[in-house]
Design a protein that fits this description.
It is globular and about 65 Å long. Helix 6 links the parallel strand 7 and strand 8. The chain is of the alpha/beta class. Strands 1, 2, 3, 4, 5, 6, 7, 8, 9 and 10 form a ten-stranded mixed beta sheet that branches. 29% of the residues lie in helices and 20% in strands. It is built from twelve helices and 14 strands. Helix 9 runs parallel beside helix 10.
């Protein structure tokens, strides 16, 4: 597939401004005169400047280019860096055309095992990101990081306010699970959260993220893709959106979540949406987004490809669900049964997974979980994540 026909090249100044040999600018292959070989890359940046889905219209400057100027000045991380920049996507004749272009481009990158890094435009562009996964012909999971839950009724609402509803109700459905992170409850109608609960999807308020950010890691680890709205960050840390919000994630928390996403072995695309440089007079938000991308890339090169749960790098536990609490270590390699939940712990990363078999016994899924889930099961309590996964398996 000739992806070059969908993109405009970058200007030389975006890369040459950061010419030190130790910066990312020296390692990225950008689209200047020649379209880069994306098939030889691990990650590919895609700039977006499509705002027809937002009621506020387009900003006067290109947000992706503003973030690029900051990103390319950052020092290269400790791992390798096979990164290309495909330039800026040319919007379609209609907004729906843009969604379909994203679908085709991302699907091609997924087929090649190249991870797209989507940067800019309104948050509804993650609908095009979502559509690309339909080509995989398997159930997928995704996570959104946003201050609001964009589930407005489509009649009379802009796509940026209703795109999540469109994804969750898409037919034919290929969605297994969804997680909403860092929303602020006073910005979300109660019936919206009730609908997500009824669908057995997980949510994590910004206060819960702040109390223990490690709660977010299993939710991001289960995702095939993640989309982030910059409005999830508080205005003081990232003044690149409107209306201003004094509450939200800190820049450190946002960078940590990007790291978690990058470390996820199964995550295959990552989007940062909603940045408006017109509100970012000093470039603070651009630097925050650039740093988030840096942490994602660094996390990507720290992946451990932990998929062989029966291999020697995993310790296997079986927690009983009945009887008095048991605080002692449970036996290793115990036999599973209807009154047990099997857990797997990586000896490389200390991350945990949980095996869920549906009640009919004809479907099984191993899902990311936390150490707290294991402790609950060890005390005879059924973890909430097990109940939700059981419901999704049917």
């Amino acid at each position: 597939m000739n992806l070059a026909i969908f993109f405009d090249p970058l200007t030389e100044e975006l890369v040459s401004a950061a010419s030190a040999p130790t910066t990312l600018a020296s390692y990225v292959t950008p689209f200047l005169d020649t379209f880069p070989d994306w098939r030889a890359a691990d990650l590919a940046i895609i700039g977006l400047d499509e705002w027809r889905g937002s009621a506020d219209g387009a900003p006067s400057r290109h947000g992706a280019d503003t973030v690029r100027k900051c990103l390319y000045q950052l020092q290269k991380g400790s791992g390798p860096c096979r990164l290309v920049d495909l330039g800026n996507l040319r919007p379609g004749l209609t907004l729906e055309d843009t969604y379909q272009r994203l679908r085709e481009i991302i699907a091609a990158l997924l087929e090649n095992n190249t991870v797209p890094l989507l940067l800019g435009g309104s948050h509804d562009l993650d609908y095009g990101q979502f559509l690309a996964y339909e080509t995989l012909e398997r159930p997928i999971s995704f996570a959104t990081i946003d201050a609001r839950v964009d589930m407005a009724e489509p009649e009379g609402a802009m796509p940026a306010d209703s795109h999540l509803r469109r994804m969750l109700l898409h037919e034919p459905s290929f969605l297994f699970n969804f997680a909403q992170l860092a929303h602020q409850q006073y910005l979300v109608a109660p019936d919206v959260l009730a609908a997500l609960e009824k669908l057995h999807f997980e949510t994590l308020r910004v206060g819960q993220v702040r109390d223990d950010i490690r709660q977010a890691e299993p939710l991001l680890r289960q995702a095939d893709f993640v989309s982030v709205d910059i409005a999830a960050l508080r205005w003081n840390d990232a003044p690149g959106y409107y209306p201003a919000n004094p509450f939200g994630l800190t820049n450190e928390e946002a960078a940590k979540l990007a790291w978690y996403a990058g470390c996820n072995d199964q995550l295959t695309s990552f989007g940062l949406y909603g940045y408006r440089p017109d509100y970012d007079a000093h470039g603070l938000a651009a630097m925050v987004l650039a740093t988030m991308l840096w942490y994602f890339v660094e996390g990507y090169y720290h992946r451990r490809r932990e998929t062989d749960f029966r291999g020697p790098s995993f310790v296997r536990y079986a927690a009983g669900l009945h009887g008095p609490p048991d605080y002692s270590p449970l036996e290793e390699y115990a036999e599973e049964g209807p009154d047990r939940i099997v857990f797997y712990k990586s000896q490389q990363t200390d991350r945990w997974w949980m095996e869920v078999v549906n009640l009919a016994g004809n479907a099984k899924r191993i899902v990311p979980c936390s150490y707290q889930d294991y402790l609950h099961a060890a005390q005879g309590d059924v973890p909430h994540r097990w109940i939700l996964t059981q419901a999704l398996l049917g």
